[in-house]
Amino acid sequence: MKYEPVEALLKSASQYFEVFFIQENVKGPIRLVDTRIGLIGFLILVLLSISTFSPPKLFFIFFNLLLLIVVSNIPIRTYLKRVGLIPLFIFTIMLPQIFISSFEYAILFTFRVCLAVSFLIIFTLITPFKEILTSLRFYKIPEILVLTLSFTYSYTYLVFNELYRILIARESRRFNNKSYRKIWHEGGELLGMFFIKVYERGENIHLARISRGYSNMPYSVKFIKFNLMPNIIFISFIASVTVGWMVL
């Protein structure tokens, strides 16, 4: 049918982002690193990834990314599920740059963004989200930003889950092919219904939270016991990557 490719893409995207925002909490040696130190270390790796277009530097970062994946005991399949559509999505956005700049520029831009996202994925896979929020509070990040990040994380899964349910319901009630005009008209109705349902469901969840004693006060989270050696090794790794990046 005319509209099947578009809806199939939307369904695949909604399923992908549902998986993307589910925490795995993979156990590995890097989990022994203090979350507050890990947060700074991974942010440095992200900055190194997006601060250059040099192929040698990017491949050097890529090699260290693979090393982190192995050391973290993250299954390759789990990592690929998270990365998934990101390279294709970024490259699609960069397609006009092929004609404005060059094909090499589009490839390198896609590569560097994928590296940065990959480091964030690794960090969220090995670190509980509550500890990430507590680390942000430790560094005196404004509370409103931390709360916004918390709500965004909580409701993003809800948004894509609701989109998938609406698409499945619409598909089960469709019997014949329709004109493009009718398809666009129904697509607009679906979009409006989607936002209404997400708003109503999010409001119900928030009211349920409040009825169970939720407040904006930050909850206390205990970090894992501080181990000196894993933290020294991790800091040394970040320092060596930074020095290697500068030398290249």
Automatic annotation (TrEMBL):
Subcellular location, record wording: Membrane
GO cellular component: plasma membrane
InterPro entries for this protein: ABC/ECF_trnsptr_transmembrane, ECF_transporter_component
Keyword Membrane appears in the UniProt entry: yes
Transmembrane annotation, as ranges: 37-53, 59-76, 83-100, 106-129, 228-247
Membrane topology, record value: Multi-pass membrane protein
Protein source organism: Candidatus Methanofastidiosum methylothiophilum
Record has Nucleotidyltransferase as a keyword: no
The entry's keywords: Cell membrane, Membrane, Transmembrane, Transmembrane helix
Protein name listed in UniProt: Cobalt transport protein
